[in-house]
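#struct-help
A.M.: can someone run this one for me? Single chain, 444 residues.
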Amino acid sequence: MSPYLGEPRDLYHGRALCVLKPRTAREVGDILSLCNESGAPVAPQGGNTGLVGGQTPDASGASVVLSLERLNQIRAVDADADAMTVEAGVTLAQAQDAAQAADRFFPLSLASEGSCTIGGNLATNAGGVHVIAYGSMRDLALGVEVALADGRLLSTLGALRKDNTGYDLTRLFIGSEGTLGVITAATLKLFPRPRSRAVAFLGLRDPAQALKLLNFVKGRAGPTLNAFEVASRSGLALVLRHIPGTRDPLAQPHDWYALVELAAFADGEAERAGAEILAAALDADLAQDATLAQSLDQAGALWKLRESMSEAQKREGGSIKHDVAVPVSEIPHFIEEAGRRLREAFPQARPIPFGHMGDGNIHYNVSQPVGADKAEFLARWAEINAIVHGVVRELGGSISAEHGIGRLKRDLLRETKDPAALDAMRAIKAALDPNGILNPGVLL
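D.P.: on it. Structure tokens below:
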């Protein structure tokens, strides 16, 4: 059972009565019905790639781990309706492939897409690199099938784009982290498949210049802007040091970088637009240098620099994580102010900010000082969190942009969420899970 009792960051290790692996939604319902009658807590689990401990049972040993990995069928693909229905254990990569086989595009893209599952993506309202163009999982789902705590199956599955018949139950369960029901399947939105793609890597002075560049590209690329990511030189240096096969794509180092992707539906359109926009941005002093990928391999190499940031930090040593969001216009101020306060309190700590500037989501991670003891550094997690999240709150931001709350941020949620909103969440939880068997200790 050990692979199901820990999580990727090694922050949480639990115990369990057993691991159950149903193959159908009805079996999931039957399991929940039995657990509800007996009072056995249930910890639902998808690909076990979550980063806040929401999929890990507690240490009591009383929980049943409910793995959805065998619910792995593509039930239907309807290209005419731009929709497909898949089960919760289908990996994100498998869903992407099923869409492509129908000449369609499913846009959710995460570094863990080979192992994370659609059920987990829905339970955490996953975001990824294409939110600026397509939104998060709440925007990408048309309906869900959910096993309720008492064993009944609730379904809003279907390819309808309009259904104004009451509460939006689909969105209620998405992002609920397994505390209101267990998602067993979903109908996902599909999109026309882009025929051309342009990926560029730009060297910048600072986040303020990155913000100007973002607005410049948005104004010229419009809906073809697919992603806009930023990273500091400190983050790129860790990737170049620890990730084999990577290289600096620009001739000289820069303090900051942007990775920009355009996608279009006519052959060559994105490449032409990308070249024109890059030239104009350089002429307008919105970047100091830039390179445009000339092949799929080059585009993949540029994306690898961004997608390897977390792995590189892990290899460097201890890293204290922050998955935060602030208004896009406040990102430069947030990065500057959080850095200033951290330098005052922890002069040797190394901030590694990077992430989805296009939608305001910055992963503001802090790596341990060179030569420091990892355990001693990680023991300061709460202190460093307080500094970074303090700036986030002042700017009207969120302490969790895409990873969820899980166990890691449960107490932070109580400190930062509107009390009336928390009361409403607890009331919904009590109505749908009166015996409290669904993922106890997670989120609330």
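A.M.: thanks! The chain has a mean pLDDT of 96.
D.P.: also worth noting: The two ends are 26 Å apart (CA to CA).
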